[in-house]
Amino acid sequence: MKKVFLSVLLILFSMSEIANGETKKPVQSPDQYEEEEIGNFDFLYGNDAQGFDQMEMLIEEAFSHLGTRYRSGAKGPSAFDCSGFTSYVYKQQTGIFVGASSRDQYARNTPIRRDEIQCGDLVFFTSPHSGHNVGHVGIVVDVDPVTLEFTFIHASSKSGVKLSSSSDSNYAKRYVGARRILELSAL
To answer: Considering 38, 142, 158, 162, which has the largest number of Cβ atoms within 10 A of its Cβ?
Structure first.
């Protein structure tokens, strides 16, 4: 009896939709749905496919060095210090010289607010030996637009090249600022 009652309700509901001119959208094939979804993100990346491709290659280059050991003053590719890592990755993928030291990179590139941070931006922190000055740098690989927390790849003195989060207490309290590489943002 319950099945009959539910069936009648379903039929009546469907008939009322048709009578009111409401119809369901045609079912899309998975290919159409995927294409539509990808198109929805154009506002994030703009129409600059070349700049997006270059950023993707930059991030891939950075990830290819995960686990590479840390050595003070090392500029890669068999070992890196923090600024050696960021300058090596940028030089390899873009030909851009971002600066020799973390302080130089902080001084020479374009300042941005935390709510403007994007993948590929450089993020700066104090270090145990720098006091309140810049002493460490990494490359942003992911940003949460709601919380403004970001993930960055960097050459850590204890672990070598690794991923860290801005929400890690060690980095959250040492954050100094972010910089955009001017030449890359102009692409």
So the answer is: 162
Local structure of 167: helix, strand or coil: coil
Listed in order, strand segments (DSSP E) in 88-149 are 110-112, 122-125, 136-143
Q: Strands of 175-180's sheet, edge to edge? A: 110-112, 175-180, 122-125, 136-143, 150-156, 160-165
147 CB contacts (<8 Å, ≥6 apart)?
167
Torsional sign, CA 97, 103, 104, 105: positive
Question: Is the pTM here over 0.85, yes or no?
Answer: no
User: CA 50: distance to chain centroid?
Assistant: 17
How would residue 185 be classed by pLDDT, with cut points 50, 70 and 90?
A: low
Pairing relationship of beta strands 69-70 and 79-80 according to DSSP bridges: parallel
* Segment 14-55, tens digit of pLDDT: 555 545 554 444 455 555 544 444 444 444 444 455 567 889
Q: Give the number of other CB atoms < 10 A from CB of residue 161.
A: 24
